[in-house]
Design brief:
Helices cover 62% and strands 0% of the residues. It contains ten helices and no strands. It is elongated and about 60 Å long. The mean pLDDT is 88. Residues 139-237 form the Cyclin C-terminal domain.
Length: 242
């Protein structure tokens, strides 16, 4: 079964995802957790470049990494690259992006240490167990359409909604790697903040302010967390572009 970032549970309305998203938090605080995360992301990005993997695959793989670290049941493996490769392999099998991934041909310059099929099998079992066998993930992408249709469409009616959605999606891909400070926020708050950033870049202040008010007073939104997340995200993406 293919997994869609935008529609992780096709039989559930988006309103139910707001109630479920706490089960997919990725917050982390200890310096060791961030150091481990950076090492794993570096390995994943090396493989993405060498194998030309789709960014949706690597996004899901990094989400698995974040969930593993958040769960505090990090796999006990002989080399950390086994975790990165396992997350990439699972994401490749499960995501709706084209292409597949195998460890065959990976080399040391990718940061991969091949300890054999038994070690890979044990790593796979441990990763699946730490994720509670749940390879679906509720990510910020699952909430974009909700905020667009419920709150953005009335504000910019007549404009192509795919344009701010594309920009918000680009921000989400970027912020997953560059914005460690985003990990403390719920996926829905991150999604709303990415759309606020996109609208702030693309539309006049009155439309941005109207959209901001609509999102802030959504029944599902914590407006204090939204403000903090938006400010942090805006600073991160524009500091990186300077």
């Amino acid at each position: 079964m293919e997994f869609s970032l935008e529609d992780p549970y096709p039989d559930f309305p988006t309103e139910d995802l707001f109630a479920m998203e706490n089960n997919y938090r990725t917050s982390m605080w200890a310096p060791l957790s961030f150091a481990r995360r950076r090492s794993l992301i570096l390995l994943i990005l090396r493989v993405r470049r060498s194998r030309n993997l789709h960014r949706r695959t690597t996004y899901l793989a990094i989400n698995y990494v974040d969930r593993l670290i958040h769960s505090r049941h990090f796999p006990e493996v002989d080399h950390i690259s086994l975790v990165a490769i396992t997350c990439l392999s699972l994401a490749s099998q499960y995501s709706d992006s084209a292409g597949s991934f195998t460890v065959r041909g990976l080399e040391e310059e990718d940061g991969f240490v091949d300890l054999g099929p038994d070690a890979r099998y044990r790593a796979d079992l441990q990763v699946r167990a730490a994720l509670n066998g749940e390879l679906n993930s509720i990510t910020p992408f699952a909430f974009l359409d909700f905020f667009i249709l419920e709150h953005l469409f009335p504000v910019i009616n007549g404009h192509n909604l795919e344009i701010p959605k594309f920009r918000a999606s680009t921000i989400l891909f970027h912020i997953q790697i560059a914005g460690e400070n985003m990990l403390r926020y719920k996926p829905s708050v991150i999604a709303a903040s990415a759309l606020l950033c996109a609208v702030n870049e693309m539309f006049p202040p009155p439309q941005f302010e109207e959209f901001t008010l609509a999102v802030r007073f959504s029944e599902f939104m914590d407006e204090d967390m939204l403000e903090l997340c938006f400010v942090a995200m805006w600073e991160t993406i524009h500091d990186d572009e300077e």
